Amino acid sequence: MVKTPDELALMRGSGRLLAQVFEMLDRVALEGMSTLAVNDLVERFITQDLAARPASKGQYGFAYVLNSSINQVVCHGVPSAEDVIRDGDIVNLDITLEKNGFIADSSKTYMVGTVSPGARRLVRVAQEAMWRGIRQVRPGARLGDVGAAIEKHAKASGYSVVRDYCGHGIGREMHEAPDVLHFGRPGTGDVLREGMTFTIEPMINQGTRKCSTADDGWTVVTDDGKLSAQFEHTVAVTRTGVEVLTLRAGETF
C-alpha cells in the first residue's frame, strides 16, 4: 500500500524509535542472559523509555515482544527462561514497534563472545545480502530485482536462501501487501512506486534452505541443523531511490 507523506512521516518516527531499541541492545552483554530476559528488557525499553507499543505482543496470539532465534533457528524463536545465550552463539533478535498507529520491523543477528569463523562469515554475508536487496529499491524497479540480488550474493558465497518466509508490506498493519521474496528473476514481480513501504529480511542458511516448524508451532529450524542468519530493515520507496526507515547509528549503505 502506498503511503501519503503524512503517513510516511509517522512511519519514519516509528523507525527511528525501533533503531534506538537495537542501539540499546548493542550495549548489552548478551552472553549468559536468557532469551526471556532479553525480551523483558526490550519490553521495558519500548514501553517505558520510548512510550511506544511492542507490536508483536498479542499478534496472532504471540505472547512476547520479540523473536529470539539462536544458531540453527531460522526465525520465530520463542523467548524462554531456559534458552540461555552462550559464548559462540549467533542470535537473531527480531523486533517490531508501533507508535502513532504505524509499525516498524527490524532484526539483527548478534555474534556473542568468540564466534567461529564459519558463523562469522555467514552473519556477514546475510547482512551484505540484505543491503544488496535494499540497493535495488527505486521507483520503476521490480520486486524480482530485490530477490535476485539477494539470492545471487548468497549463492555466490556458498549459502542458500530460505524460501518459506519473506518480507512484507508494512504500515498500520504488521503484514500488508506485497510479499517480498528473497529470491527471483530480475525484471519480474510488482513494480515499485514512490510511497511503498515494506521489509527486506533475508534468512541465509549454511546448508539446505529447507526448514521445519517445531512442536511449539512457532520456532522454525533448519532441516540439517546447520546455522542460519538474518537481517531486516523497513524501507520506503522515495522519488529518487530508497529510505531505510529503521537505519541504526553507524549503518551506511
What keyword list fits this structure?
single chain; 253 residues; alpha+beta; three-stranded antiparallel sheet
Q: What does the secondary structure layout of this molecule look like, with pairings?
A:
Blueprint: H1 5-25, H2 35-49, E1 66-70, E2 73-75, E3 90-99, E4 102-111, H3 117-134, H4 143-156, E5 160-161, E6 167-169, E7 176-180, E8 197-200, E9 203-205, E10 211-213, E11 220-222, E12 228-230, E13 233-237, E14 242-244
Antiparallel strand pairs: 1-3, 2-11, 3-4, 5-9, 6-7, 8-13, 9-12, 10-11, 13-14
Helix pairs in contact: 3-4
Task: Summarize the structure in words.
It is a single chain. With 253 residues, the protein is of the alpha+beta class. The protein is 27% helix and 25% strand. It has four helices and 14 strands. The chain has helices at 5-25, 35-49, 117-134, 143-156, and strands at residues 66-70, 73-75, 90-99, 102-111, 160-161, 167-169, 176-180, 197-200, 203-205, 211-213, 220-222, 228-230, 233-237, 242-244. The chain has a three-stranded antiparallel sheet.
